[in-house]
C-alpha cells in the first residue's frame, strides 16, 4: 500500500486514476488500472514503496503479470517505485526495460520565461474541432516505439478522459494558437488546492520559440491568481529538456520517483 507520505507526483496522479480507473491496495504495492485505456503505460501499472533489489527485476514483473495477465490488450509492463533512492536497476536494463527518473517540480508563484512569445493566443479547449486538434498535436511525439495506430488509439482515449474531467469541472485543457492553428497545448486539473499539469506538448515545427514557457507561465498565473490554487505540480523526465523550461518560470525540484517500463509488441 502507499507509504504514509507519497510524493506529490504520485498523490496528484491519483486525481486521474480515481476518475476513470481503479486504485487497489495490496500488502506491498499499489495496483493502478485504467480499463478504458489498456495501452496507457502509466495508467496500468504497479507502484512500490521501496527501491528495487536485484531479485525484483524478476519478482516485480511477475506481480505485474499476476495483476494484468488476464487482459491481452495490455502489452506493456510499468513499474514505479516512489522513493528518492534509485535502487538496483541492472536487471531491468538487462531485460530491455527503459529506466527513468521523474522529477516532481512545484511552484507557489511564477515568473515570465526568459523568452516570451507574444504572437500566440492562449485559450481553453472547448469545441470538438479543438479537441481533435489536441489529439493531432499530441500524437506527433510518441514516447515509446508503438505502432502509430495503437498510439493514436491510446492518445484518443486519454484525451477523451481529460475532456470528461474538464466537462465535470475538475480542470481544463488549454491551447496556444498561431493564425488559428493549435501549436501547443496542456492540461491543468486540481483538487481545489493543488493543481497538476498534464501532457505539455508543442508542435515539432514550433519548438524553441518561447511557446512552451509562455503557455505554462500563462496557465500557472491563471491557476494561482484566478482559481486560487496554492501549489502547482509538474512531473518531468529528468533526462528531458522540459524540466529546465518549467524551472525557468519558477518551478523547483521537490522530489523524485523512478520507473521501469517495457513495451512488448
From TrEMBL:
GO molecular function: acyltransferase activity, transferring groups other than amino-acyl groups
Protein name, entry field: FR47-like protein
Organism in which the protein naturally occurs: Acidiphilium rubrum
InterPro entries: Acyl_CoA_acyltransferase (IPR016181), GNAT_dom (IPR000182)
Location of the N-acetyltransferase domain: 120-265
Any Pfam family the entry gives: Acetyltransf_1
Amino acid at each position: 500500500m502507499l507509504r504514509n507520505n507519497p510524493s506529490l507526483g504520485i498523490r496528484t496522479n491519483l486525481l486521474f486514476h480515481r476518475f476513470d480507473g481503479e486504485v487497489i491496495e495490496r500488502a506491498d504495492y499499489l495496483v493502478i488500472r485504467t480499463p478504458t485505456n489498456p495501452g496507457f503505460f502509466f495508467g496500468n501499472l504497479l507502484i512500490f514503496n521501496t527501491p528495487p533489489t536485484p531479485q525484483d527485476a524478476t519478482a516485480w514483473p511477475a506481480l505485474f503479470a499476476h495483476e494484468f495477465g488476464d487482459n491481452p490488450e495490455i502489452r506493456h509492463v510499468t513499474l514505479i517505485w516512489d522513493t528518492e533512492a534509485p535502487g538496483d536497476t541492472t536487471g531491468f536494463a538487462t531485460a530491455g526495460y527503459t529506466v527513468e527518473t521523474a522529477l516532481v517540480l512545484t511552484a507557489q508563484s511564477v515568473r515570465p520565461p526568459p523568452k516570451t512569445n507574444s504572437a500566440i493566443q492562449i485559450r481553453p479547449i472547448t469545441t470538438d474541432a479543438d479537441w481533435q486538434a489536441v489529439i493531432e498535436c499530441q500524437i506527433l511525439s510518441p514516447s515509446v516505439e508503438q505502432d502509430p495506430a495503437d498510439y493514436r488509439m491510446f492518445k484518443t482515449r486519454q484525451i477523451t478522459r481529460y475532456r470528461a474531467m474538464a466537462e465535470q469541472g475538475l480542470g481544463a485543457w488549454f491551447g496556444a494558437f498561431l493564425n488559428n492553428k493549435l501549436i501547443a497545448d496542456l492540461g491543468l486539473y486540481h483538487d481545489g488546492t493543488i493543481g497538476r499539469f498534464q501532457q505539455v506538448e508543442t508542435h515539432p515545427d514550433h519548438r524553441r520559440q518561447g511557446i512552451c514557457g509562455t503557455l505554462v507561465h500563462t496557465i500557472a498565473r491563471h491557476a494561482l491568481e484566478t482559481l486560487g490554487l496554492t501549489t502547482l505540480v509538474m512531473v518531468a523526465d529528468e533526462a528531458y529538456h522540459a524540466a529546465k523550461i518549467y524551472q525557468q518560470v519558477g518551478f523547483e525540484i521537490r522530489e523524485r520517483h523512478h520507473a521501469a517500463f517495457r513495451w512488448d509488441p
